[in-house]
Amino acid sequence: MIRGVIFIFLVYCQSYVLCFNEIEVNKDIDFLPISTSILFYTDVSSEYTPEEVVNLLKTNSQSKKIKNNSVVFDNGDANYWGGFSIINSDSESISLLFRIKNYYLNEVDLYEIIDGELILVGQSGDHLNIKNRTIKHRDHIFEIVLQTHEKKLFLFKFNRTAKSVVEFELMSSSSYIENDLSRSLVFGIYFGTILLFVFYSLGIFFFLRKKLHLFYGLYVLTCGFTVGNVYGIGYMYIYPNVGELSNYIVTNITFISLIFFVLFTFEFLRLREVSPKWFRFFKRYLGVYFIAAASILLFYS
User: Fold this and answer.
1) Nearest-CA neighbor of 31 among 209, 228, 173?
2) From the centroid of its chain, how far is CA 162?
3) 28 class by beta-carbon count within 10 Å (0-12 exposed, 13-18 middle, 19+ buried)
């Protein structure tokens, strides 16, 4: 009796997931945006297991609005599930990388559906220690290997406590490595320039003792750190083990950067000497703003 129920359940799951939009690939693939080929499932409680989700797909499936391969997820307090099917149309086996492009997804899991059962392929996410990711990289990437004319079915899950824009891509390993090296070179030049300005400004401050150079150096440093966070550099290299604190670090560093910018502006315009009344007004306004912003950061999730 129990075996019969399990068999019917697996047949039901398998019969549905075969309705996934099929993505055809071959050895010549370089880059393939696949957001339009994915069916999404967004009304699923976080209490459900992946196996239970498979049973709920039929009533919860929906296509998301796509713009330039970007999918917008408005609800910031839910698990998002997606399913897709890949078939190798070539006579040779191929290895591809599946990338979910958004550095600040909290938890990312990829499953392969085999005979109705879900096999975990890999994990990622900025709430997961970097050393525990299946592929240790700031991107959420997973390797997919397809034998000759093989077809595979996949289910993935991620969540994010904010409105998010996410892209889904398939690409060859060589293409990804080439693009990643180019991005790493750009990041290196950018952050090298940032450090040059920071050391130059702080060096001048050390000798001249002028606040103008101190505030400028700190503003450039925090601004560079903010940009680094946007591209996952901070989480990858600076604070890889902080888990859920990463969102608060990004917010607070951005706020501090703004404070340094305002202080630098005061010194650059010599507001204290030129217009003492306006200087006192802006100083009080900045104090009220700082208290209000700090209160929001402390008491509002």
Assistant:
1) 173
2) 11
3) exposed
Residues in the chain: 301
What letter represents residue 192's amino acid?
G
Each residue of 89-147: pLDDT tens digit?
Answer: 888 889 999 999 888 788 899 999 888 788 899 999 877 777 788 888 888 999 999 99
Residue 113 neighbours by CB under 8 Å, 6+ apart: 13, 14, 17, 54, 83, 119, 153, 154, 155
DSSP string, 225-238: HHHHHHTTHIIIII
> Which residues have a Cβ under 8 Å from the Cβ of 138 and sit 6 or more positions away?
103, 231, 232, 233, 235, 236
**Whether 213 contacts 204, CB under 8 Å:** yes
3-state secondary structure of 241: coil
**Phi, psi angles (nearest 5°) of residue 203:** -65, -45
pTM of the model: 0.72
Taking only the tens place, the pLDDT of each residue in 165-190 is 889 999 988 888 888 888 888 888 88
Q: Where are the alpha helices (DSSP H) in the chain?
A: 2-17, 50-60, 173-208, 211-230, 233, 246-269, 271-274, 276-299
Of 211, 225, 185, nearest in space to 266 by CA: 211
User: Rounded distance, CA 37 to CA 22, Å?
Assistant: 7
Dist. CA 40–CA 74, nearest whole Å: 13
Question: Following DSSP, what letter does each residue of 110-178 receive, concatenated?
Answer: EEEEETTEEEEEEEE-TTS-GGGSSS-SSSEEEEEEE-TT-EEEEEEEEE-SS-EEEEEEEEEHHHHHH
Question: Rounded to an integer, what distance in angstroms lies between the CA atom of residue 233 and that of residue 84?
Answer: 30
Helices 2-17 and 50-60: angle between axes, nearest 10 degrees: 50
CA distance 261 to 216: 7
